[in-house]
């Protein structure tokens, strides 16, 4: 991508009326497009310019003038230009997703300037390997990784794997966002002058499942997410270790590039290699791990990962976040990485010798969560009875 950016800077000097500066002001700001997406628009324009050497404004003039004729849309210059453009991308050996994305980007620019964009005929792209559940890191692998890395990296991994939060949102979280999510576990409201006391009060607690307000950068959508008590435990440990902490400081005192570099090193050190085009261990894999393992409905997983609902759905169906939190807590065993986090405690586990080992282990995980205060005794009894009823039936 770096080479494309340097080449693109040369190309932009050749563009006249419709430069990237113009597009930044007129198109991208109006659409509230993030930086990485703008880079993709740049790559799309670069490829288009490689094929059609005229400046983009001249190309647009040709397309708009031809619209005034009686030519059918699939007989116009634009139709053949887009067909040639697609062939050009295929020959460059881009992935199918990248080819479709780059074509969509150039179509969006053309449409913005009132060019009628033709529908292209379907084309058979190369068969690509589709990732499966087996390509995701396992609970055991995540545990082994966490045991090798520092406190900050471990807290980020457990937060992202238990909440499914994307990297952009993870790096934008502030201390106050997390502490507001922990409000029910605090004695008094959070203020700048009692920040250290608030963190000290939370330190060592095993039952914190915060409900954190976020905004999805990609869609500008407000939503809530939740993370596991083992992630909260480590986040609080990390906050407690930081000097001169302020409420508006970043929750994780590291940037996007820093996390990417750490994850790249983890992938290399563990010999994970690549799955398709990407490293096996990366931020998006943790998001997939969450979605693929968390035993909630697809709709509930979409909610905590910030994926949007239809306008009609949002208008009439309001999410009961407290109920979702309760369901999330019940589903926690499916995404917990460690059997025991924090200090030791007296388990007094239940003897379930007459039941299959898997069921006994599952019930005892819920029992441990009850001991830590994540579940109430009533919630534990309901879960245990449901599990026992299922095995009897």
Tell me the domain tally: 3
Shape, principal axes of CA atoms? elongated
Low-pLDDT regions: 1-17, 342-350
Encode the helix/strand succession as letters.
Answer: HHHHHHHHHHHEEHHEEHHHHHH
Strand content: under 5%
Q: What is the rounded distance between the termini?
A: 57 Å
Rg over alpha carbons? 26 Å
Largest sheet: 2 strands, antiparallel
Q: Name the CATH architecture of the largest domain.
A: Orthogonal Bundle
Backbone structural class: mainly alpha
Describe this structure in words.
The chain is elongated, with a radius of gyration of 26 Å. The protein has three domains: 2-112, no CATH class; 134-323, Orthogonal Bundle (hpI Integrase, Chain A); 345-392, no CATH class. The strands form two sheets. The chain has a two-stranded antiparallel sheet. The protein has helices at 2-12, 20-31, 35-51, 56-67, 77-91, 96-112, 139-148, 151-163, 167-172, 175-181, 195-202, 229-241, 256-269, 283-293, 298-304, 311-316, 321-331, 357-371, 377-392, and strands spanning 211-216, 221-226, 274-275, 278-279. The protein contains 19 helices and four strands. It is mostly helical and 393 residues long. Strand 1 (211-216) and strand 2 (221-226) form a beta hairpin.
């Amino acid at each position: 991508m770096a080479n494309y950016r340097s080449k693109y800077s040369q190309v932009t000097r050749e563009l006249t009326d419709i430069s990237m500066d113009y597009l930044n002001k007129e198109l991208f700001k109006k659409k509230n497009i993030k930086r990485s997406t703008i880079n993709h628009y740049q790559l799309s324009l670069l490829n288009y310019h490689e094929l059609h050497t005229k400046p983009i404004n001249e190309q647009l003039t040709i397309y708009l003038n031809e619209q005034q004729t009686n030519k059918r849309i699939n007989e116009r210059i634009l139709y053949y230009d887009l067909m040639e453009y697609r062939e050009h991308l295929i020959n460059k050996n881009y992935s199918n997703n990248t080819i479709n994305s780059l074509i969509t980007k150039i179509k969006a620019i053309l449409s913005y300037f009132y060019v009628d964009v033709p529908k292209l005929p379907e084309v058979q792209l190369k068969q690509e390997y589709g990732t499966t559940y087996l390509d995701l890191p396992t609970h055991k692998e995540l545990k082994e990784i966490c045991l090798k890395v520092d406190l900050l990296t471990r807290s980020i991994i457990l937060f992202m794997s238990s909440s499914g939060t994307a990297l952009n949102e993870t790096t934008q979280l502030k201390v106050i966002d997390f502490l507001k999510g922990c409000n029910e576990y605090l004695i008094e409201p959070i203020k700048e002058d009692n920040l250290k006391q608030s963190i000290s009060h939370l330190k060592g607690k095993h039952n914190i499942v915060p409900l954190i307000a976020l905004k999805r950068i990609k869609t500008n959508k407000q939503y809530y997410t939740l993370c596991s008590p083992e992630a909260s435990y480590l986040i609080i440990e990390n906050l407690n270790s930081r000097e001169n902490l302020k409420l508006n400081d970043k929750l994780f005192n590291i940037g996007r590039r820093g996390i990417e570099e750490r994850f790249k090193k983890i992938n290399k050190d563990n010999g994970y290699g690549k799955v398709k085009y990407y490293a096996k261990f990366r931020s998006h894999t943790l998001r997939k791990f969450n979605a693929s393992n968390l035993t909630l409905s697809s709709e509930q997983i979409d909610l905590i990962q910030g994926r949007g609902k239809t306008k009609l759905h949002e208008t009439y169906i309001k999410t009961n976040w407290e109920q979702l939190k309760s369901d999330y807590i019940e589903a926690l065993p499916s995404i917990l990485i460690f059997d025991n986090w924090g200090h030791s405690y007296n388990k007094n586990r239940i003897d379930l010798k007459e039941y299959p080992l898997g069921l006994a282990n599952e019930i005892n995980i819920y029992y441990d969560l009850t001991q830590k205060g994540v579940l109430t005794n009533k919630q534990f009894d309901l879960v245990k009875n449901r599990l026992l009823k299922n095995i009897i039936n």
